[in-house]
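Hey, I'm writing a tutorial for new members on how sequence and structure tokens pair up, and I'd like a real worked example in the thread rather than a made-up one. If someone can provide the structure for the chain below, I'll link this post from the tutorial.
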Amino acid sequence: MTTASLLKRLQALDTNTVSDALDFLGLPGATYGLRPLWDCPKVVGLASTIQLGPKTDAKPTVHLISPVIAEVESDDRVLVISGGVDGISCWGDILANAAVAKKVRGSVIDGLSRDIEGSESIGYPVYGKGVTMISARNRVIQTGSGEPVVMAGVTVAQDDFVIADRCGAVFVPAARIEEVLDLGERIARRQDGMVQAVRAGRSVADVMHDKEFEAINTKASQ
């Protein structure tokens, strides 16, 4: 199956459903605390990983994240940025404009953003821990890219799948994406049926019984 078709299937789900699929499969991936920093749309794409860290010397450096944006060559990338420092920005509107020019789909930051109105004004999705006005310049640097990073306790590799919406951000290992999608689609169908059953008057205690949820993870629920 092509990457484009996998991303289309992931786009049709939400983070809650993908999180449930990961739970059934015993996989990490769901995070807590990485939320939309404006009322931005869902983001689905492939991870371009970036590692940040505190600046420890006075030597001038290339601005963090800009080299990764400059190298983007496809329209399916999501910047996955780890290593933010408390109180310090690691994203801003100039980077957002550069990302839009390269057709990057959005940024998920284990840290803070400044200039959030700038990202919002051009429709660029940003998910992270919060906002600040304090610049990263001479405080935070990029220490690596394209290698595994840790996002809110979850390890994310280059080219893993990313989905982020109003409930937060979830990362799916590339090697398991088809399995997660197959199960996620079964979960979505089953839960839609449960909603319809409640609306039709069936007892919510019966509809939400543990056995009903466990049935989702069986072929019979397809």
